Amino acid sequence: MRAVLAGSLSVVLALGLTSPAAAATGPEVTACPAALPADTTCYGGQDANGAFYAIAIPKAWNRSLVVHSHGGPDLGPPTPARTTDDLTRWSVMVREGYAWAGSSYRRGGYGTRMAAADTENLRKLVVARFGQPRKTFLHGQSWGGDVAAKTAELHPRSYDAVLLTSGVLAGGSRGYDYRVDLRVVYQYYCGNHPRPTEPQYPLWMGLRADSTMTSAGLRARLEECTGYQSATRTPVQQRNLDDILAVTKIRESALASHLNFATFTFRDIVHNGLGDRNPFGNKGVHYSGSHDDAALNAGVERFDADPTARRDLSYDSDITGAVSVPVLTMHAIDDPTAFVEHESAYRASLGPRRNLVQTFTTEAEHSALSDSEYASALQALAGWERTGRKPTPASVAAACPANDGRYGTGCYFDPRYTPAPYASRVNPRPGGTHWPALTPLQSKIWEWQGVKGIAP
């Protein structure tokens, strides 16, 4: 997930300011990123809701389209650079012959249904400008995996197949529980976020709405408490770090980014998205792995979720599993950001449906895996959709060496791997081990009742 923006942006976020909607512009021909084939034509513009977009069409277009949902969420205002950066990152899809389209979304901050609407709006724009593609594939990366999964559920006739890579697939109401745990465990050991001399607030807020703390300031506190990524630490810093990592099961290299999310993005969700209502809870959770679990469990801050806030976050972002088109996922086994056990939650959410193939790689990355693997996954998905013959993890892996001859980025598939249950990695809340977290019926009931989730 993209790092949280800092500095003066913190004040903007605290005030809940977002970019206003603009008059629609484009699509207009623009310069293509250097990573694309030289004969590609690129377009850019801004839709009526204020979302920027990028579109790329290769000269040898196969008449199929990939619509991309990006991760994050970014907390700053939307910019055209978001879309061109994504186009560069996923240029392999254009090199595979597909047209590609990606949206910045209309605003920064959390909002899965908002992002899903902007993704679908972009698909419609491409159809209106360039005609109906032969096939339309939906791709989501990181939090964009949740966005794409939700988009496929909300618009089942718009997409022929779905590719989810490094996806946050446990949804919002459970997918961030390990960051809730990090927020309270960190404060138990460090006591500097907030400090005793600073205004106090419940930790589920992430950060006070009016705080001017920056990412650099937060990292300084992390370093102060744990000697984070330092060659030398005091014994107290080492024990603090060991306990935090052991209890949360977070890798040290990713600790700062997870704490950023549990600070700045939690503030966005709670303050801007839910009107200062709390969607998170940790009562009933037993923390283990520290040098003194009894003291930790007795002293850590506890709280219950506001039922209406949890409902709204669930309605906005939880996956119901109601998708009928082919879905292929790809996830690094040692993903430090979206734990691979998210895939177990997604499989359980889809239940007995036979339209899911999950592939895993031995990489330890989140934001970008091998282009040779992305090409193999997209080819397998397209073949499945075209012929009805479902691929296997082994067949996807077997196709990779041929693609690596073209891309040279390596093949790291492990077709034998199966992830452990989500609850083996993330402390389940009472009643929180059944999937899906949001059933299709409950989603429909809330819709009938006028539940809005998080406003766009």
TrEMBL record:
Gene3D superfamilies: alpha/beta hydrolase
Keywords of this entry: Signal
Signal peptide: 1-23
Organism: Umezawaea tangerina
Lineage start: Bacteria, Bacillati, Actinomycetota, Actinomycetes, Pseudonocardiales
SUPFAM superfamilies assigned: alpha/beta-Hydrolases
Domain of life according to the entry: Bacteria
Name under which the protein is recorded: Alpha/beta hydrolase
